[in-house]
Amino acid sequence: MPDHTSRAARICPDCDGFPTVAITTGTRDQDGTRTTVPVVCPACHGTGTAPLWLVTTRRPTVNSHQLAVTSSGLEAGR
Predict the structure, then answer these.
(1) Is 56 exposed, middle or buried (0-12, 13-18, 19+ CB in 10 A)?
(2) CB-based contact 11:47 (threshold 8 Å)
(3) CA distance 77 to 1
(4) What region, left, alpha or beta, does residue 21 occupy, with left being phi > 0 and alpha being psi -120 to 50 degrees?
(5) Which own/partner pairs from 35-43 qualify as long-range (CB within 8 Å, at least 24 positions apart)?
(6) How far apart are CA 38 and CA 23, in angstroms?
(7) Could you give the CA distance from residue 70 to residue 2 in angstroms, rounded to a whole number?
(8) Do the strands 68-69 and 75-76 form a parallel or antiparallel pair, or are they unpaired?
(9) Which CA distances in Å does 28 have to 20, 38, 39, 40, 62?
(10) What is the number of alpha carbons within 13 Å of residue 36 lying toward its C-beta?
C-alpha cells in the first residue's frame, strides 16, 4: 500500500495557529460578565495559516563563536 506523507504545516509564525483571541477590556456588563473584544492576528488576517514561502524560508543563523564585541560594547557580525 502506498504511504501518503502529509504536507508541511503552514501555521502562522506570529500567532502559532491561534488567529482569534478574546481580550477582556476590564469592564463588566450589567449582568456581571466581563466585556471581551475579539482580535484577529494581523499577519494572517485570522486564518491561522501562512503562505508557503514564509514557512519554508529561514533566516540565516550566526554562530556564537563568530561574534566579536567592539570597543563600544556592541556585538559585531549581526
Answers:
(1) exposed
(2) no
(3) 51
(4) beta
(5) 41/12, 41/14, 41/15, 42/14, 43/12, 43/13, 43/14, 43/15
(6) 6
(7) 57
(8) antiparallel
(9) 21, 16, 18, 22, 49
(10) 8
**Would you say 48 and 12 are in contact if contact means Cβ atoms under 8 Å apart?**
yes
Grade residue 17 by pLDDT with cuts at 50, 70 and 90: confident
Q: Extract the C-alpha cell encoding 70.
A: 567592539
The model's pLDDT over 53-63, given as tens digits with 9 standing for 90+, comes to 766 665 556 56
Query: What is the band of 76 on the pLDDT scale with cuts at 50, 70, 90?
Result: low
